[in-house]
Amino acid sequence: MDEAQAYLNHPILGSRLIECCHILLDLDNRTALNIFGNTDSLKLLSSLTLFSLTPNADPIFEKVLAKYFDAKPDDTTKLILQKQSIQIDTVANMD
């Protein structure tokens, strides 16, 4: 999650990601599959899920999830984040 937050806070990367999300919202009559193909549409779903779960996330990620994925985040990404959180908590409790 720290890496996602750092990406969003980067002056170029974060702003370009937000800009790309705005472009996606402006497209009409297209699906993520039409735009990106199978593999990259899954990557988009995973990325949107990740960035939507960062602290103080820009609502644009939820909007793109809603438009292209019926507002359903990627369960696999959420599971990975939960496992990472448990591992971090376990290590922190060992100190």
UniProtKB/TrEMBL annotation:
A Pfam entry, by short name: DUF1810
Superkingdom to which the source organism belongs: Bacteria
InterPro entries assigned: DUF1810 (IPR014937), Rv1873-like_sf (IPR036287)
Protein name per the record: Uncharacterized protein
Species of provenance: Moraxella canis
